[in-house]
């Protein structure tokens, strides 16, 4: 069964622009210039029940707009959205009963009252029975270590503490589908790890579908097998994270530090017949060979270099996901020009 | 229904979280009542009655009007404006409840809190200082109770309307302020409507504002009795029903063209 089905989804916004100068400001009083900008441009994708999908893109790529349409907050300009078998916007009140949402930048707890009061209200709002609540939430509270926070007002919590509470609040009704919009923004490593562990656990235990947007790619690496990448409202990649790396992760970098003085052009002539590029960090005297996809070349480069110079240190680096994605965006820009 | 009642409870907790607000509120209301008491005393200046109200009835009118205001008055228009401006309305829309219904309940929670912990103690203080005449008639109290519930509903619907306009105007602080002054003036809080010139009274007869303060206060001071009081309640109830229409229409349009501000 598909948790999310999106077909030809489009959302347009009016972007107003102000005329310049005083006379322009007066004219703006009566008529305003605007152009129609598509924030999400006819996208299609489906998510299966139990999948964990990373939804990534630069700021303003249309991620949040998509999430808001998927959660029934915004009406699409055109296209169809079916989530948990329902139209999110039309059947909003019934639909939101089946999803949980965490907006990293907005709190859904009540600021001035204790966390447990917020939980109690949400329990009533989602009509969760005492038995279900106790069984499920006891576990959540224990795993996220919320016990000492329950009687504190939200405004006195640190960001990490609040985020853990937010996550628990989104899970009170144990929804089959969870939307996380930048859930780890501004959190320290320990809290991030705890949240990831927890998400993995509920995914395994309840087969919860999770759609995650984040700028922190380590989140995606730790959690998601599949990524959907968005650029200027278009999906530019949809598939496994692994094949993304294979397809775009071009080659390896081999860095050498030498005990003796080395010459860049000497190294270049040494490996002249191989398809590589040498770079030199002048300050640290680190020589880096950037190879293509050919696995053979790596050992060739190392063998020839080590034979010619005494080596202090050798490092072989694969490009990180972050570099790959930056790479895609740079090229993606060119394609969409 | 459970969730709406729970919301009233939460509102109580929130009001209790800000105690200073609560105490200064009592003080401000007492000062207002005191000021109007002396003002009206000066205006009466020995005359036994003006426009059918005696000086004591007038004092009672002012005191009751302010105490009833504590119940029907709420800031949900301003709250909605902030929620919409800051994009928090997104969070409200992912919950399985009716946003406007929940806002009304928050207003009611605030109103009930103020009625018991604010109006009643305030009324005792005011009654000790100024000569006020309470009706001993149970029927008057009953009619008054129905009447202030209706004034709460009318005022809340007007607040919802003002709040929803934020969706279209993005910044409606001025409108909210204008609405408040308009209500204080035209509802009969500052001046009983029977004191306005004839033509103004006629116009106000077609507006919902008289149902907010004038009618309940007149019922309480026995300015309206018998059929007049019942007629007042019917006018109020009619406005409650009429105002449902623009609120719902505006809400449907607002949801369609909703833009969540701030990402």
TrEMBL record, chain A:
Protein's organism: Mesobacillus selenatarsenatis (strain DSM 18680 / JCM 14380 / FERM P-15431 / SF-1)
Protein name: ABC transporter, ATP-binding protein
Stretches assigned to the ABC transporter domain: 24-257
SMART domains on file: AAA (SM00382)
Molecular function via GO: ATP binding; ATP hydrolysis activity
Stretches of the chain forming a coiled coil according to its record: none
PROSITE patterns linked to this entry: ABC_TRANSPORTER_2 (PS50893)
Pfam family for this entry, one: ABC_tran
PANTHER family reported for this sequence: ABC TRANSPORTER ATP-BINDING PROTEIN, ABC-TRANSPORT PROTEIN, ATP-BINDING COMPONENT
Keywords: ATP-binding, Nucleotide-binding, Transport
InterPro entries registered for this protein in UniProt: AAA+_ATPase, ABC_transporter-like_ATP-bd, ABC_transporter_ATP-binding, P-loop_NTPase
From TrEMBL, chain B:
Positions of transmembrane segments: 21-40, 52-72, 112-132, 144-169, 181-200, 233-254
Keywords tagged on the record: Membrane, Transmembrane, Transmembrane helix
Domain of life: Bacteria
Matches recorded under Pfam families: ABC2_membrane_6
The keyword Isomerase is annotated on this UniProt entry: no
Protein name, as recorded: Daunorubicin resistance transmembrane protein
Species the sequence originates in: Mesobacillus selenatarsenatis (strain DSM 18680 / JCM 14380 / FERM P-15431 / SF-1)
Highest classification ranks of the organism: Bacteria, Bacillati, Bacillota, Bacilli, Bacillales
